[in-house]
Specification:
alpha+beta; 10-stranded antiparallel beta sheet; 16% helix; globular
Length: 435
């Protein structure tokens, strides 16, 4: 009678030449049910840490897929927790993990003796931030442990699948590296063109003097009205801005997040958002977005050119912005999402919240703009960098909404704040006066 065992076929050949990475490894590579002892599935870092784009790790997950089922999280650790959370593993299985430096961060599952539940496909996801506070979600290649009566065809098919998975993984790494290089090259070309334009400007001296006069007025606050139009801003703990030009009203959007499974709602540890933000009510989870809404036309000037987003109010964006939206797929069990008071343009139903934004990307974010600095305020990050504001210190922040597992999160175009969907991530920029 033939014996059932497994082959693990993997080849990691591209990542060391391009970028170091978290990978799934399985030891030993040949497993027999009831015979092989101390089988481990490990998600850990391979390569030189200096090559990684990850500056800070916030979460590591190992996902398992049985033959006829989708991937599901079986082990997870977060940077603010000491324990590894598990789901769907037998009681005899041992899990361990840590989030420290890149080289010392890992999650590992150990079977004291091989059991049928360990077979299937494995992948690990690592979530964190780059040095510029961009959110990074890194997914490893899939590694398979399949119990079968092994034939030459079986081994060949498994090898082909693993090779295709690795090729796709490597192609994505190469494309990301080429994109980063091209972005750097384009920035250098734009800078060169900008310098040429300045040199050719015959009115350079007069314009410079005029700019200095305007800047002195702006810095004293004489001209610091909130810009024209109707719009909404996320409310910080300090509350809405003083009534400098705009008349502010308040409201909130209450998002009903995942409540039937483990919930992954999250805000930055340094969050300055108006509370409450996270709420647990009975068996239900909620996240709040509090808004300051300008519903009457401000007498201020046009919004400055730059790279940032605000919320839309009044069915159209102020001059210079493009409009887009984000859709939240709320928890369907109970459908307890709600709105109160003045809120941004959107569609708010029992199971779906769709919120509209106004975004622009018509100037370098490192060119500071003038906005009233009497009180702190939020803008949304757009195209990778928080907009510089004269006299203000900016702190990047994050909101993560664990939306319903069905998942119908969606963007309707490219004009929306930086982040991701499935689940919804919002990347925020918090501004307070520089001391």
């Amino acid at each position: 009678m033939s014996r059932k065992f497994t082959f693990l076929l993997s080849s990691f050949s591209c990542f060391a030449a391009i970028e170091a990475s978290f990978l799934v490894t399985i030891n030993p590579t040949r497993v027999e049910t009831g015979i092989t002892h101390n089988v481990t599935v490990t998600c850990s870092y391979w390569g030189e840490s200096s090559l990684s784009s990850l500056e800070k790790i916030t979460m590591i997950r190992i996902l398992h897929q049985k033959t006829t089922e989708p991937f599901s999280v079986v082990a997870e650790i977060r940077d603010n927790e000491n324990n590894v959370h598990t789901s769907g593993l037998n009681s005899g299985v041992v899990v361990s993990g840590a989030i420290k430096t890149l080289d010392d961060s890992f999650v590992e599952i150990l079977w004291p003796v091989a059991t049928p539940d360990l077979y299937g496909h494995y992948r690990c996801d690592v979530i964190g931030f780059s040095i510029t506070q961009d959110i990074i979600t890194e997914k490893s290649p899939i590694v398979s442990i399949l119990e079968t009566n092994v034939t030459a065809n079986d081994v060949l098919e498994l090898l082909i699948r693993e090779k295709e998975e690795m090729k796709s993984y490597c192609d994505a790494r190469v494309a990301a590296s080429e994109s980063n290089f091209q972005t750097l090259l384009n920035n250098l070309r734009r800078e060169e063109a900008s310098n040429n334009d300045i040199l050719e400007n015959t009115l350079r001296g007069e314009l410079s003097a005029l700019r200095e006069d305007v800047n002195r007025l702006m810095e004293t606050g004489v001209l610091q009205y909130w810009p024209e139009g109707t719009y909404a801003l996320l409310s910080p703990q300090a509350g809405c801005p003083n009534n400098v030009g705009a008349i502010w009203t308040t409201g909130l959007v209450k998002i009903h997040t995942e409540s039937t499974d483990r919930n992954y709602d999250q805000v930055s540890t340094n969050s300055h958002l108006l509370a409450p933000v996270l709420e647990r009510a009975g068996t239900n989870n909620f996240m709040y977005q509090h808004f300051c809404v300008s519903t009457t036309l401000s007498p201020g000037a046009a919004w400055p050119k730059g790279s940032y987003c605000i919320n839309r109010k009044g069915d159209k964006c102020p001059t210079g912005f493009e409009t887009g939206s984000i859709q939240w797929n709320e928890e369907r069990t109970g459908s307890a999402g709600a709105t109160t008071g003045a809120i941004p343009d959107g569609t708010y139903t029992a199971a779906i919240a769709k919120i509209f934004y106004c975004c622009r990307n018509d100037s370098d974010p490192f060119h500071p703009v003038y906005l009233p600095k009497a009180r702190p305020f939020y803008l949304y990050r757009f195209k990778g960098t928080c907009q510089d504001v004269v006299g203000m210190k900016v702190t990047p922040e994050l909101m993560v909404f664990d939306t319903d597992t069905t998942n119908a999160d969606a963007y309707d175009n490219d004009w929306h704040p930086d982040g991701q969907i499935n689940d919804v991530h919002l990347l925020l920029c918090y501004y307070e006066e520089r001391v």
